[in-house]
Amino acid sequence: MFAIRQALIPGLGLLLLTACGGAGSSPSSTAASQPSSVRLSGTVSGTSTAPTFNGQVLMTTGAVVTVDGAPGTSSQVQPGVVLQGTAVPTSQGLQLEAADLTHELEGPVTSLDLTTSSFVVLGKTVRVDALTQILAEGPGDVQTPLTLGDLKAGDFVEVYGAENADGTVQATLVERPAPEANPQEAFQGTVSALDPAAMTFQAGGFLVSYGSATVQGTLVNGAWVEVRGTASGTGFTASSVTVETPDAGGSDMELCGPISGLDTVARTFLLMSYKVDYGAATVEGTLANGAQVEVEGTSGPAGSQTLTAREVKVQFPESGSGDSNLEVSGVVSAVDAAAGTLTVGSTTYWTDASTLFVKSDAPATFAAVTAGETVEVHALSSRTNPAGQAYATVVVVEGD
Fold this sequence. Notes:
By secondary structure, the chain is mainly beta. The chain has helices at about 10-20, 25-35; strands spanning about 40-45, 45, 50-55, 55-60, 65, 70, 80-90, 95-100, 105-115, 120, 125, 135, 145, 155-165, 170-175, 185-190, 190-195, 200-205, 205-210, 215, 225-230, 235-245, 250-260, 260-265, 270, 275, 280-285, 290-300, 305-315, 325-335, 340-345, 345-350, 355-360, 360-365, 375-385, 390-400.
């Protein structure tokens, strides 16, 4: 069953109190001088130097940033990361106040399937599409783009993403960190079969032993937790357990990311830990499972993790295939619209109706590709046309 949860954001309560006027302040004076905060939950888009959220510039200077609850920096707010936080809308965009960047999974890859564009970590199937970013971290925090074909069994990875209704994880960003001694594994899940005497509980398919763990919050059955430690078969020895705090309810919110569990009769879908009711919303585009959407609305009663949407915009109606083992970035030297091919340097790639084209963080078409522009191409070498050219699964037009 899909678990609904909300990330713990250190200091968030204080920020919300300040945004609402704070203790001992005058509501009228603060209302006139301070715009209200909105809650954010979803995937960061844009570029590393100009991140966006829901199509708005995301300004991170001065924000309190944590990564899985530990101190972080604003420079870690990068495309593909999933954040839970607060921001103040301004004429320039969203000024981020506080955010927690939350990994869905951390652990070794146990198996990889290029045919289905997926891999398995800690027993969870992680799905990759054309919009998923895969990066390798090197010395000096230098990041190198990878394709799914670059990963192999045994690689330790950190996965940002959203849990689907079927229990799989749709990855938005996969990072392969630089090797380190004894990296800790981590997952998120719902507590069940809590045994305070034995100091164990079930979550994420594991029997978790928390006797030697640092526990933040109160463990109860049904609580959503992040667990860090070491897996051994179906057992997991926790070093830390963080009980995540439910939404207080009634907040203005903006969500974005891939949806699942679409119910066109009830007019609901699941997105970033929320069950979204879009029955009274203005919907732009066609909703489908896997579509990337932007949502504005109001959260439901405290602890319900529901949201009543005012606006739903489909950013990417489909996210293409993540099946690729080649990645190249360079200037387009030739384009053949009739053949549907483009040449980067001296290498030509073929495309079809399923190739995903992206420009300015939005869907595009083959017509967006012109000679002289810089593109990033993810391709599959095992799928060739009669001319022996590799198939392009996604083409990102970066400009000239």
